[in-house]
Amino acid sequence: MDRATYQQAEELAQSTDANVRAELAARQDLPPELLYFLAGDQSPDVRRAVAANDSAPRLTDLILAQDKDAHVRGDLASKIAKVAPGLSNEETNKIKAQTYEALETLAKDQMVVVRAALSEALKDVVDAPHDVIRTLAGDFAVEVSGPVLEYSPVLTEDDLIEIIESRPESAAVAAVGRRADVSENLADAIIETDDVEGIADLLGNGSAQIREEALDDLINRSQDIELWHAPLVSRPKLPDGAAQRMAGFLAKNFVDQLRQRSDLDSSTIDAVSNVLNSRFGANGSGGPAIENAVSAGFDLLKVEPPVATAERLLKAGKLSNDVIVKALRAGDHSFVFASLIVRSGVSTAVATRIFMERNPQAIVALIAKSELPASIIVTTQQQMGRVAPSEIVHPESDGSMPLSDDEIAWQLEFFADLAERG
Fold it and tell me: DSSP letters along 101-144, please?
């Protein structure tokens, strides 16, 4: 920057218009001393521009890490998290120290939103500072700890086991259970927490290594834990005899899914089929057959739902709660999907978008709008929505819907807008 341009920049830095100063603070060619000057600007918008500027000197970052405005600190967290791991060996020790000090300050920020921004930016950075990642992983706010617990390659197995043993909150256990390539030792630690949701996420993680004896024990315990049924049926490998035992208590659609597994021999499939017939009858229906019933292999978003059939039943006064609940238990997801569309009054496009996004709150809102019982919201999220176990929304303690009328309306309006925009 030549002298004339520098003088012009100095004048702009003292402009009475905050927008002018903010625009100047965003320039990548601005001399460090001017960025340092603007870091003390009275306008948070100007300071945010400095915080996000890659050219800002590290000392400026250290100052802004203690800025009174959370948005400034949040923008700084996102930027500095990307800059710090890239520091080369040619950088001075002083610059490195200032950068890491800023990161450590942000990792202990009083505002969750700032710590969460830092965690999100660092979650998959291979050479992120271990101490900073460890601090974030131990945070009691799941918005902060979750991303690094689930994704950070910096955390060692010992780190993760220690965190689980010292603070076995469900969200933390579940995040670790979703990590890629969970080892047997780490899986043992997750199971030892006895956290139902965390174990459900572990079981649903196909890359997780679970000892056969541990998996066998979880299968025995799962009869009374519905949340484990879907992920157990989908495990890449089941212990010998597990399929037949599971067929004795799983819902019909899950038993059908067991029979379709390619890793079971013919004698095991026959044994599962015999259990199915003894529980549900020769046709496997377990009750009145539902038109267009499909197996657990049904892909909800690739099959045309029988909306016309549901409309005829509604018009005849026969699309009752009992009919829909029985269809859900029988695994007739296509009919249930059509019933939700007809009973709620939303379009097929809106309902499709809700299930495509796997949004638990929106699925619950759709069920509530259809005036169906709250008792089916977990099964619907799990079987039809394929919602992650740790994200499933449960009924209130009194068995009522967990969303208010305003929340239900907001969810459906939001997804209607999404569907309209394509």
Answer: HHHHHHHT-S-HHHHHHHHHHHTT-TT--HHHHHHHHT-SSHHH
Neighbours of 202 (CB within 10 A): 28
Residue 317 and residue 325 in contact, taking contact as beta carbons nearer than 8 Å: no
Domain that holds residue 397: 307-421
To the question of pTM greater than 0.85 for the whole model, the response is: no
- Segment 221-239 shows an average pLDDT of 87
Label residue 358 by pLDDT band (50, 70, 90): confident
Question: Per the structure, how many domains does the chain have?
Answer: 1
Burial status of residue 261 (CB atoms within 10 A of its CB: 0-12, 13-18, 19 or more): middle
DSSP notation for 28-50: TTS-HHHHHHHTT-S-HHHHHHH
Pick from 154-158, 356-360, 409-413, 417-421: least confident: 417-421
Q: Residue 153 half-sphere exposure, CB side, CA atoms within 13 Å? A: 5
Kindly give, in sequence order, each residue whose CB lies less than 8 Å from that of residue 5, ignoring residues fewer than 6 positions away: none
Long-range contacts of 135-141 (CB under 8 A, 24+ apart): 135/104, 135/107, 135/108, 136/107, 137/163, 138/163, 138/166, 138/167, 139/115, 140/167, 140/169, 141/112, 141/115, 141/116
User: 348: helix, coil or strand?
Assistant: helix
Whether residue 180 is contained in a domain is answered as: no
Per-residue pLDDT tens over the stretch 342-353: 999 999 999 999
Domain assignment of residue 233, yes or no = no
For residue 8, being part of any structural domain is answered with no
